[in-house]
Amino acid sequence: MKHLTTSATTRKRTPLNACWVLVLAAALLGGCKSPATNFYTLSPDASLASSGDSRPIVAVIGPVTIPEIVDRPQIVTRFNDSGVAVHEFERWAQPLKGDIGRVIAADLGTLLNSQQISVFDATHDLPSVWHVRIDVMRFDAVQGRDVVVDVLWAVRPPGKSRVVTGRSVAREAVSGPGFDPIVAAHDRALASVSRDIAAAVQANPVQ
Questions:
Q1: In whole angstroms, what is the distance from residue 120 CA to residue 141 CA?
Q2: First vs last Cα of the chain: how many Å apart?
Q3: 3 state SS for 20-52
Q4: With contact defined as beta carbons under 8 Å apart, do 56 and 116 qualify?
Q5: Angle at Cα 46 formed by Cα 45 and Cα 49, nearest 5°?
Q6: Are strands 84-92 and 38-40 parallel, antiparallel or unpaired?
Q7: Directed axis angle between helix 180-202 and helix 96-111, to 10°?
Q8: Residue ranges of the alpha helices (H) in 32-139?
Q9: CA 23 to CA 30: how far, in whole Å?
Q10: CA 197 to centroid of chain Cα atoms
Q11: What pLDDT, on the 0 to 100 scale, is given for residue 17?
Q12: Count of CB atoms within 10 A of residue 74's CB?
């Protein structure tokens, strides 16, 4: 008789236990939901001003190379000299090397007062075209602190075999937490690089 009472009690509790299992499973699934992914893009620096040079400069930006550590969709930040963090849910909206080339082309377009500076060479190497190669050595960021952009660049004037080379290292402070201030600091750093390249172009006028 005692055995039958125990069995009956067990049968009554089984549905209740099953309900608790379902509730716990739902809670666990809800807690494991992935956070939303945020996408970012670099932008030309709106504070740049034209030099007033009216020469019809035609230029092509490329190739552009970047370090493998940042050549990925995820934004990469540093937390010390040898440690990096790859942020899975903070991503570039397009390949970074293409974004860098596009922004430098736009910045140079403003600085040199030209609407004919592009990352796409549709000119078939006409003798009037300037060529600018960009080799990014560092594209570092420390959250809440600063970014460092280190670029080796080479400018080949049209009709000349001599290549003008230079190196620009730009450090910009990050104005606050999050990733928007990091991207904005990279924009300013690339604008600094563009100023150096524009100066090299202006110092080597075409004869």
A1: 28
A2: 112
A3: HHHHHHHHHHHHCCCCCCEEECCCCCCCCCCCC
A4: yes
A5: 95
A6: parallel
A7: 50
A8: 96-111
A9: 11
A10: 20
A11: 58
A12: 15
What is the SS3 assignment for 88? strand
Tell me the one-letter amino acid at 130. Answer: W
List the Cα angle 162/163/166 in 5-degree steps: 145
Q: What is the pTM of this model?
A: 0.82
Question: Distance between CA atoms of 167 and 129, rounded to whole angstroms?
Answer: 22
In angstroms, how far is CA 200 from the centroid of its own chain? 25
pLDDT in tens, 53-101: 656 689 999 999 999 999 999 999 999 878 999 999 999 999 999 999 9
Q: Which amino acid is at 189?
A: A
Kindly report, residue by residue over 103-154, the tens digit of the pLDDT: 999 999 999 999 999 998 765 567 789 999 999 999 999 999 999 999 999 9
